[in-house]
Amino acid sequence: MANLTINTDVCIGCGMCTKECPCRVLKVEGGKALVDEKQSPNCMSCGHCQSICKAGAISLFEQKCEPLPDEHTSVIGAIKTRRSVRKWKGAIPNEELKEMINLIKFAPSACNYRPIKFMVINRPKLTEVLTHLASRAANLETTPAIFRPVCAYQAKVDIIGRDAPHMIIAYADDQHKEFANDDATIMLAELELALVSKGYGSFWCGFMKVLLKDPYAMEYIGLKGQHCYGCMGMGIPNITYHHLV
């Protein structure tokens, strides 16, 4: 459990922290946010609760709440304010999404080989893909890392794609594969910051990456013979953060 404290004198009981907590560690009782002791061991210290608390009632590791900087659309501001978004208002306009993806061609690449290519899967196609791959994974000997999200998905709780409007997949073939992982990580990190600078949101989707380790899964989405090196969900956030954490 992280060193999480709630100033109940300041808390206004809006419940935004409970809705934003990905691990369901918080609850509202008697008009105040509280730590659910049964769920507290699941806290992963992400800081979302502190960042979203408009009243400034939550403190993680005894950090004081700092307001978002005015330069939050700059590179430095984007680095400071980026958060993993899991609630969505809608899809990013197609032309703007293309613009964001085209930006990352300027990212550095080992020996300038540039082995990474990208595929974007949008809803409702993404729902179809996740449903099929989760069903297949449930019948295979899956790793513990993917077993829980697959079971949750089959119970209609999407902790794989987090209901994101878009999923971008970074992939490459066997040529220059020794550099592909680093290249994909750098490019997706730069894409994440570009999205933040435009007011969009994203999250790194490790569960999808695990699903796509299965060659069948890559063939199913039309990438036979390719290897996945990273996945990211994207969209217009339906959430506003108020503090640096």
From TrEMBL:
InterPro entries: 4Fe4S_Fe-S-bd, 4Fe4S_Fe_S_CS, Nitroreductase, Nitroreductase-like. Pfam families: Fer4_10, Nitroreductase. Keywords: Flavoprotein, FMN, Oxidoreductase. One of its GO terms (molecular function) is oxidoreductase activity. Residues 2-31, 33-63 form the 4Fe-4S ferredoxin-type domain. Belongs to the nitroreductase family. This is 4Fe-4S ferredoxin-type domain-containing protein.
